[in-house]
Amino acid sequence: MRFDTVIRNGTVVTASDTFVSDVGIRDGRIVALAADLTEADEVIDATGLFVLPGGIDSHVHLDQPSGDGIVMADDFDSGTRSAAIGGNSTVLAFCMQEKGQSLREALKIYHAKADGKCHVDVSFHLVITDPTAEVLGQELPALVEDGYTSLKVFMTYEGLRLRDDEILATLDTARRTGALVMVHCENEDAIRYLIGRHEEEGKLAPKYHATTRPVAAEREATHRALSLAEIVDVPIVIVHVSNREAMEEIRRARQRGQKIAGETCPQYLMLTADDLDLEGLDGAKFVCSPPPRDKVSQDACWEGIEQGVFDLFSSDHCPFRFDDPEGKLNEKGKRHFRWIPNGIPGVATRLPILFSEGVMKGRIDINRFVAVTSTNHAKLYGMYPQKGTIAIGSDADIALWDPQERVTLTNEILQHGADYTPYEGQDIQGWPVRLLVRGQTIMERGSVVEAGQGQYQSRKRSNLIADTNSGASVRP
Ligand code: URP
Ligand code: ZN
Ligand code: ZN
């Protein structure tokens, strides 16, 4: 058999297995896993390297409108470039519905933003901010059929949050159509109350972003979201979990028999609220929601990854420039934390951080690394086994990792649009040295070598939906 490309002598890793094998690729797909594959136009020597499924980052914000005068630091060009540098072959970005806008209109805008500009494959989650009868009754069912099979709803942020009755209606549509709903769990009314108290006390510095969004606001909303999902009888994903109490809500819901997926992110392993309390306004660099907590919460999130409470490790890449009037230090943001745009960059650092801190330090094995950074994302968001694994017939989305490569993180190497990384100076062991997307080398040794090759991915329904027995699970 002749191949377009053969990857030779590498150690192939999937979510379940580790084995030495050559990988034969033809027409963008993996067509052979065997020893001594030689007949190829291109032979890549992977001696000493891990051959992993390309990372799938299912929580990425790119080119989203972010409030008056605020501009997100990455569009689909720079954001997917940075994703490739960090070993990702697919990103799932958000398509944000504006109030009063139809979902089709929103999708037209986001496709125009993305088409032809992406360096890795891309797909959209639909953010539902205006769940009218028409959106839920007509548009959404048709869009799910068209391959837009996941949604996000917010319980916080003025202008984005849904009321409980709106969440119930959205969950009900998801149940009927087979869509998977991601929920941002923080109690907006509690946060607004605390912001009011902070204002009365003149507490306006960046560090107060964290004290106005306490664990209790996240835990309560997590519990409520899980309860609403139980009542409707539909699986959901609890995204960006920052602490043990919210995590235990997921564990308990699963024990009650609910189908739930949980996600955590690098910031909840690596940062704390103390990072928001730096000299001057530097703390603004770390403002994101939920906020980073403390060392005990970091340990809890590690436990959740190790024990399988979290299925997903995503970046929640939501980049803003720091020293910029359109970014973190906009005029109002300099004076009051509530105007600092929420979010931090991280699409390039997600995988190296977990590889270095998790695999190299012995907290998780490399199969778990593959599961939480790629395979589970593909399964949960309807792309498996086309993506997320190394198997005959799968897309040849492959990252070659050198476990010996040592890198000190600096902003320059990440090639995103932000003017900082929260992880500046962090020492990393293990780095993605080459990335193939559908068989084509896209990134090699820190440079994108083939630009604009990313394709839009229509998706199937989630395995969490397909696996769900639709018998009633609502308890009296
Ligand atoms: O602070 C964050 N996480 N910004 C991104 C938007 C979101 O809530 O995911
Ligand atoms: Zn969110
Ligand atoms: Zn997010």
From TrEMBL:
<dbReference type="InterPro" id="IPR011778">
    <property type="entry name" value="Hydantoinase/dihydroPyrase"/>
</dbReference>
<feature type="domain" description="Amidohydrolase-related">
    <location>
        <begin position="50"/>
        <end position="441"/>
    </location>
</feature>
<protein>
    <submittedName>
        <fullName>Dihydropyrimidinase</fullName>
        <ecNumber>3.5.2.2</ecNumber>
    </submittedName>
</protein>
<comment type="similarity">
    <text>Belongs to the metallo-dependent hydrolases superfamily. Hydantoinase/dihydropyrimidinase family.</text>
</comment>
<keyword id="KW-0378">Hydrolase</keyword>
<dbReference type="GO" id="GO:0004157">
    <property type="term" value="F:dihydropyrimidinase activity"/>
</dbReference>
<keyword id="KW-0479">Metal-binding</keyword>
<dbReference type="InterPro" id="IPR006680">
    <property type="entry name" value="Amidohydro-rel"/>
</dbReference>
<dbReference type="Pfam" id="PF01979">
    <property type="entry name" value="Amidohydro_1"/>
</dbReference>
<feature type="region of interest" description="Disordered">
    <location>
        <begin position="453"/>
        <end position="476"/>
    </location>
</feature>
<dbReference type="InterPro" id="IPR050378">
    <property type="entry name" value="Metallo-dep_Hydrolases_sf"/>
</dbReference>
<dbReference type="InterPro" id="IPR011059">
    <property type="entry name" value="Metal-dep_hydrolase_composite"/>
</dbReference>
<dbReference type="InterPro" id="IPR032466">
    <property type="entry name" value="Metal_Hydrolase"/>
</dbReference>
<feature type="compositionally biased region" description="Polar residues">
    <location>
        <begin position="465"/>
        <end position="476"/>
    </location>
</feature>
